[in-house]
Design goal:
Distance between the termini: 158 Å
Radius of gyration: 65 Å
GO molecular function: proton transmembrane transporter activity
Number of helices: 4
Structural class: mainly alpha
Family: Belongs to the ATPase B chain family.
Shape: rod-shaped
Order of helices and strands: HHHH
Membrane topology: Single-pass membrane protein
Pfam families: ATP-synt_B
Largest sheet: none
GO biological process, one term: proton motive force-driven ATP synthesis
Length: 185
C-alpha cells in the first residue's frame, strides 16, 4: 500500500523530460491506467447509451429463450410422436408374437393329427397285410392238406381197385363233373 501512496505523493515530482521509460510497478500504474481508460470511454462513448446496449442484449437473450422454447416444444412433440409410434410397434410386435404362437400351436396340432392319421392308416395297412398273409397261409395249408389227402385217397384207391372198378369210378366222376358243369351253366 505504501507504493500506491508514494506514487500519488510523487506525482508532483516528475522526472525530467529527457528520459522516457516504462514504469513496471503494477500497483503504481494501475490507477493511472484505469483513469485513462474511463476517460476515453466517457469521451468516445457519449453517443452510445449503456441502456441501449443492455436493451439490445436483453432482446437477444429473450429471442434466444423464445427460440429455445419453440425448439423444446417441437422436440417434445416429436418425442410424443416417437413414443406413440413405439407403443404402436410394440403392440403390433405383441400381436405378431401372439399370432405366431397360436400359428405354431395350430401347426403343431395339425402335424400331430396328420401323424396320428398316417399312423392309423399304417396300422390298417399292417392289419390288412397280416390278414391277407394269414389267409394266404391258410389257403396254402388247405391246398397242401387237400393234395396230400387226394394223393392218399388215390393211393388207397389204386391199391384197392382193380381195372374195371377203376374205369367205373372214373366214368362216374366224369359224369358228376359233367352234371356239375350243366348246373353252373
Amino acid at each position: 500500500m505504501k507504493n500506491v501512496t508514494d506514487s500519488f505523493v510523487s506525482l508532483g515530482h516528475w522526472p525530467s523530460a529527457g528520459s522516457f521509460g516504462f514504469n513496471t510497478d503494477i500497483l503504481a500504474t494501475n490507477p493511472i491506467n484505469l483513469s485513462v481508460v474511463i476517460g476515453v470511454l466517457i469521451f468516445f462513448g457519449k453517443g452510445v447509451c449503456v441502456s441501449d446496449l443492455l436493451d439490445n442484449r436483453k432482446q437477444r437473450i429473450l429471442n434466444t429463450i423464445r427460440n429455445s422454447e419453440e425448439l423444446r416444444g417441437g422436440a417434445l412433440a416429436q418425442l410424443e410422436k416417437a413414443r406413440a409410434r413405439l407403443r404402436k410397434v410394440e403392440m403390433e410386435a405383441d400381436q405378431f408374437r401372439v399370432n405366431g404362437y397360436s400359428e405354431i400351436e395350430r401347426e403343431k396340432l395339425n402335424f400331430i393329427n396328420s401323424t396320428y392319421k398316417t399312423l392309423e392308416q399304417l396300422e390298417n395297412y399292417k392289419n390288412e397285410t397280416i390278414q391277407f398273409e394269414q389267409q394266404r397261409a391258410i389257403n396254402q395249408v388247405r391246398q397242401r392238406v387237400f393234395q396230400q389227402a387226394l394223393q392218399g385217397a388215390l393211393g388207397t384207391l389204386n391199391s384197392c381197385l382193380n381195372n374195371e372198378l377203376h374205369l367205373r369210378t372214373i366214368s362216374a366222376n366224369i359224369g358228376m363233373l359233367g352234371a356239375m358243369k350243366e348246373i353252373t351253366d
